[in-house]
């Protein structure tokens, strides 16, 4: 564990200017950095500097713990009414023969196929299909809960929910209340992309706006439904756009306290309309995780989705502010594999995942969706059993 005095010593020995050293002093004093200081970190701070500060924050909060959970992904369809330029996953209605559409029974059968397995969460996201509306999904969630009454249902991005509510002609509150009454427990963080209109109107012009995304999550929090938050980085945005995005999330978290975790998502350029854009480097990925941990001072957790960036980079991220590595058994999600992610057919047993965490000197901790500790695998005896996990 790094002490404040050790950090101060390392900062004093580093070749950084007075402004960066002032930011380090604020971090050690647990003071919030400003948007201008966030931009300064992106523009001037090297990987070692931000990594040192981010690791100090994550160890102060979580020690050597790294969290994961047992869950399954279900993607009902990749047919979508929206045409996001960065998306390799969805297919427009006019090209629906290239996509898929699971029936209700297929979805329920997938849930049944995990009978007897130690899953605690089902994660449901997909394309925005005009025939799969609010009541359809409400009824589907109710049937899933009849199969697995104890399972946590985390479902639908704000983009999907916005479309459902609009088509059903109900308010966000009424739509979310209906889903909650049928068994939905929380929201994932997808669809945030980059909030600033200079970027959003180019990469995702026809989907819900930043204000609508934030309003959906604020409404969910007021109804007692926690959620996650994401940021799609490494495409045409500037550092200022990233900080603007994080600032809007930080302000909403100040207001509601309803976000569980912040998840930076790396733009992958395979098979989409932005394939000409070079992807960010590993160094920039790690810097972005670290600056996210420093800036998002009111978020309890920062997550790296290892199927997107690969196992080794996810391991490295644990030294740069990340405390949640996700996990996988049967990763049917194609959102990133179709865009050229490092893991094309990701699958890890719990033993493999916990060993990845231990290899970098951390403690693997199974959690539930809202970060209650389920089991500490630090000294687990794998001679007795093998358990499998799935991505969040």
Describe this structure in words.
With 392 residues, the protein is α/β, with parallel strands linked by helices. The chain has one domain: Aldolase class I (TIM Barrel, Alpha-Beta Barrel). 42% of the residues lie in helices and 12% in strands. It contains 15 helices and eleven strands. The chain has helices at 4-13, 18-28, 35-44, 47-62, 104-112, 134-147, 158-168, 172-181, 197-203, 210-222, 239-256, 282-295, 306-309, 311-317, 350-359; strands spanning 65-68, 71-74, 79-80, 91-92, 121-124, 152-155, 227-233, 259-266, 301-302, 363-367, 373-376. A three-stranded mixed beta sheet has the order 1-10-11. It is globular and about 60 Å long. Mean pLDDT is 89; it is low at 335-344 and 388-392.
Supply database-style keywords:
single chain; 392 residues; alpha/beta; TIM Barrel; three-stranded mixed β-sheet; three-stranded parallel β-sheet; 15 helices; globular; disordered C terminus
Euclidean distance between termini CA atoms: 28 Å
Annotated CATH homologous superfamily: Aldolase class I
Supply Rg. Answer: 20 Å
> Per CATH, what is the topology?
TIM Barrel
Biggest sheet architecture? 3 strands, mixed
Q: Residue ranges: pLDDT <50 for 5 or more in a row?
A: 335-344, 388-392
The fraction of residues in strands falls at 5-15%
Number of domains: 1
Structural class: alpha/beta
The strand count comes to 11
Number of helices: 15
Average pLDDT rating: 89
């Amino acid at each position: 564990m790094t002490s404040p005095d050790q950090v101060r010593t390392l900062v004093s020995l580093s070749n950084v200017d007075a402004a960066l050293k002032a930011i380090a002093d604020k971090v050690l004093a647990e003071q919030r950095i400003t948007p201008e200081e966030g931009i300064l970190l992106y523009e001037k701070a090297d990987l070692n500097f931000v990594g040192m500060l981010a690791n100090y924050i994550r160890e102060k909060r979580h020690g050597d713990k790294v969290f994961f959970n047992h869950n399954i992904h279900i993607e009902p369809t990749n047919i979508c009414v929206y045409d996001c330029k960065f998306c390799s996953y969805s297919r427009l209605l006019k090209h629906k023969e290239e996509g898929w559409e699971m029936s209700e029974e297929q979805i329920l059968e997938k849930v049944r196929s995990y009978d007897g397995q130690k899953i605690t969460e089902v994660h449901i996201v997909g394309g925005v299909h005009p025939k799969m509306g609010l009541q359809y999904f409400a009824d589907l969630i109710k049937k899933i809960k009849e199969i697995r009454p104890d399972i946590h249902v985390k479902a639908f991005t704000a983009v999907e929910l916005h479309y459902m509510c609009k088509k059903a002609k109900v308010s966000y509150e009424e739509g979310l209340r209906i889903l909650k009454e049928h068994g939905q427990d929380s929201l994932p963080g997808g669809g945030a992309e980059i909030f600033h209109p200079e970027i959003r109107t180019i990469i995702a012009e026809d989907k819900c706006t930043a204000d609508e995304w934030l309003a959906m999550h604020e409404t969910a929090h007021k109804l007692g439904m926690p959620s996650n938050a994401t940021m799609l980085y490494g495409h045409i945005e500037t550092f200022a756009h990233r900080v603007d995005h994080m600032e809007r999330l930080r302000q909403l978290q100040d207001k509601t306290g309803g976000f569980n975790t912040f998840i930076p998502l790396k733009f992958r350029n395979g098979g989409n309309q932005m394939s000409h854009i070079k992807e960010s480097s590993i160094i920039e990925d790690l810097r972005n995780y670290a600056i996210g941990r420093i800036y998002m001072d009111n978020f309890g957790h920062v997550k790296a989705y290892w199927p997107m960036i690969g196992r080794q980079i996810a391991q490295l991220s644990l030294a740069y502010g990340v405390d949640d590595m996700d996990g996988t058994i049967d990763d049917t999600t194609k959102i990133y594999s179709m865009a050229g992610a490092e893991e094309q057919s990701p699958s890890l047993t719990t033993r493999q995942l916990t060993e990845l965490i231990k290899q970098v000197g951390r403690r693997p901790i199974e959690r539930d969706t809202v970060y209650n500790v389920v089991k500490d695998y630090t000294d687990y005896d794998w001679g007795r059993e093998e358990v499998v996990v799935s991505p969040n």
